[in-house]
Amino acid sequence: MLEYLIQFSIIAVFYYVGELLAAILPLPVPGTVYGLLAMLAALWTGLVKLERVEKAADFLLSIMALLFIPAAIGILDLLPLLASSWWKIVLICIVTTVTTIAVTGHTAQGLLRLQGRKKS
């Protein structure tokens, strides 16, 4: 139990560091993004070992779907407003999904090519 508390505390520290950076820096970037980048940098540099946050992170990932329920309920309140624009929303979802798949595929192919060049 204490292990989870420590791991959640480490994750929370990076969240609050990100929020602080968002308040200080004049860029339109959410604090959560800064926090994730700070956590990534800490993991890459070895400042934070993966084992120090892994169990809490796995738990948060396992309940991530539950964390979207309040947002979904909030969208239900806006249904009358969204009803007139449903086709625009569907079109945006399709375009962004296809774009994401294409960019991910090209990025993966590029990384595989780079990996192949390193080996040879």
Separation, N- and C-terminal Cα atoms: 48 Å
Share in helix: over 70%
Tally of separate helices: 7
- Residue stretches low in confidence (pLDDT < 50, at least 5 long) are none
Can you put this structure into words, describing what you see?
With 120 residues, this protein is mainly α. The protein has seven helices and no strands.
Supply database-style keywords.
single chain; 120 residues; mainly alpha; 7 helices; 82% helix; 0% strand; extended
Q: What would a concise description of this structure say?
A:
The protein is mainly alpha-helical and 120 residues long.
SSE topology:
Elements: H1 2-24, H2 31-45, H3 54-62, H4 64-67, H5 69-77, H6 79-83, H7 86-119
